[in-house]
Design a protein that fits this description.
binds zinc ion; Quinone Oxidoreductase, Chain A, domain 1; alpha/beta; Rossmann fold; 11 helices
Length: about 350
């Protein structure tokens, strides 16, 4: 089969590789769509970061070369001997996070903190290929009323939902989302479904326009207005209960801490490539809680599928383009890196 294989820094190769083997408790999935995101670009330009470079991952025993791609939607092509809950032809998504199941954190259900955690497309072969084999216990069947296109963003949506869960958002509480790219836009919708009013802050007019259509109660262009003041005005002079940084800029964590209300919560759901200087006295004096959010858990993905089915999560407006496997670098990455940045998600159809 064809696959896009990560060999190292700036070394992604379109290759012919053997079809994946099928374990007894696995299914082989024909990949319909695999989304590409900023993490893929970071691995390409600055990696290996999360990719298993020198040492094999303890759970999978794999290191590079590894097939890229972690946002996977497809249909079942073959079923292992011991799999009884899935059938050939079922449309599915992949929970791409594998854990050891035996450590302190796994036993507490805090699976994103398993020290041996392995992610599809980073520590084991991923979805930028015609087929992938995956443990059936981590494959989620799509209901009839959720299209494969809608589900193609289920992985970033699970990341977004996990971040909102981390914030412990309560009914009626306000949320500000910094950076409404694809993940920010999904954070915004999840926060809207759980809490009270949601405000989107960005510099891109295109993003803010879409945020409004997707349910933002107010949108703030931080290039044109004093966003901190605007958020105070929107919250009776208090500040939002929760601020979620999905922008990942050098100064955005500090802005998030500044803009959250005293005693509020800040969630960081981005990969930071620059290290800012920080005044931690702000955390001390405002008693703001700063929380990290990494990947997602199975429950997040299950919930995302339910939200897609009842239409409380809209993903189709976030699909900006569909490309072939041989276009990932020249068309996909290039468009995502362009200064105009007019994209949310680009889907790859490996079999086209
Ligand atoms: Zn991603
Ligand atoms: Zn573990």
């Amino acid at each position: 089969m064809k696959a896009l294989v990560y060999h190292g820094n700036r070394d992604l190769r379109l290759e012919s590789v053997p079809d994946p083997r099928l374990g007894n408790d696995e299914v082989t999935i024909h990949v319909d769509y695999c989304g590409i995101c900023a993490t893929d670009i970071e691995e390409y330009l600055y990696g290996p970061i999360f990719m298993s470079g020198d040492e094999p991952n303890p759970v999978t025993g794999k290191k590079i070369p590894i097939i890229s791609g972690h946002e996977i939607t497809g249909s079942i092509h073959d079923v292992g001997r011991d799999v009884h809950n899935l059938a050939v032809g079922d449309r599915v998504i992949v929970n791409g996070v594998l854990t050891c199941k035996t450590c302190f954190w796994c036993k507490r259900g805090e699976t994103t903190q398993c020290p041996s955690m392995a992610a599809v497309g980073f520590n084991i072969d991923g979805g930028l290929a015609d087929y992938i084999s995956w443990p059936a216990s981590q494959v989620i069947r799509l209901p009839y009323n959720v299209s494969s296109e809608q589900a193609a963003l289920a992985e970033p949506a699970s990341v977004a939902l996990h971040a909102v869960r981390r914030s412990r958002l309560q009914l009626g509480e306000t949320t500000a989302v910094l950076g409404v790219g694809a993940v920010g836009m999904l954070v915004m919708q999840a926060a809207k479904a759980i809490g009270g009013k949601v405000f989107a802050v960005d510099k891109r007019k295109m993003s803010l326009d879409l945020a409004k259509t997707l349910g933002a109660d107010a949108v703030i262009n931080s290039d044109e207005t004093d966003a901190g003041q605007a958020l105070l005005d929107l919250t009776g002079g208090v500040g939002p209960d929760v601020v979620i940084d999905a922008a990942g800029g050098k100064d955005t964590p500090e802005l998030a801490m500044k803009w959250a209300r005293r005693g509020g919560r800040v969630v960081l759901v981005a990969i930071y490539t620059q290290r800012p200087e920080f005044d931690f006295n702000r955390v001390v004096s405002t008693e703001v809680e700063v929380l990290g959010s990494l990947a997602y858990q199975q429950r997040d993905m299950d919930e995302v599928v339910r939200m897609l089915a009842n239409d409380s999560l809209k993903t189709l407006p976030l699909i900006s383009d569909r490309i072939r496997l041989d276009e990932v670098i020249d068309k996909g990455f290039a468009r995502m890196l362009a200064p105009t940045k007019d994209v949310f998600r680009i889907l790859v159809s490996p079999s086209d």
